[in-house]
Amino acid sequence: xxxxVQSGAEAKKPGESLKISCKTSGYSFSNYWIGWxxxxxxxxxxxxxxIFPGDSFSPYSPSLQGHFTISVDKSITTAYLQWSSLKASxxxxxxxxxxxxxxxxxxxxxxxxxxxxxx
Amino acid sequence: SYELTQPPSVSVSPGQTARxxxxxxxxxxxxxxxxxxxxxxAPVLVIYKDxxxxxxxxxxxxxxxxxxxxxxxxxxxxxxxxxxYYCQSGDGSGIYPFGGGTKLTVL
Lengths: 119, 107
What we know:
The complex is a heterodimer of chains A (about 120) and B (about 110). Chain A has about 120 residues and is mainly beta. In chain A, about 0% of the residues lie in helices and about 50% in strands.
């Protein structure tokens, strides 16, 4: 049974750092891409980027890149999304998802992590 | 950048057919996927590879592709199908943007 379990909700202040996680199980971690998707309050889904655990190659959204980093720890089959300096505009629900790269679909999703950034 | 355009909203009565389009702004168009998103829930994949349905997705959901436009069709719409629907496709360089989303209202 494929499972992606995300870390819990976070409340942070602007300028703080944060790392949220996505623990996977039930499949061969190194053989599937993992992606992160953002949904800001009242807005649509935004593709943030992907990572291939096999070699950590990680394409990012051209419009969003530079503000966050996607990484993995293969030893514990976990993917991460991190920020070094949060902004209020980072307030959103974040989802991780497994991608079937043959046709580019996210076929399994985490439950989401709500990140709130407020002073 | 590669953009996918969807109508903001579609409304149908129960039992009717809903069609949601998604147009890419350039070639090449890779396979498209469709997701259903309900408030408070994670997205669910309902169509992949333009017209394939994952196991567990009702047969009333189908997909098609013509040129740079893909279409999600929901036949015999039910109240439970009311949700936001998003298309997604790749640009060939490893980027897989979503469309802006379509709110399906069941009247």
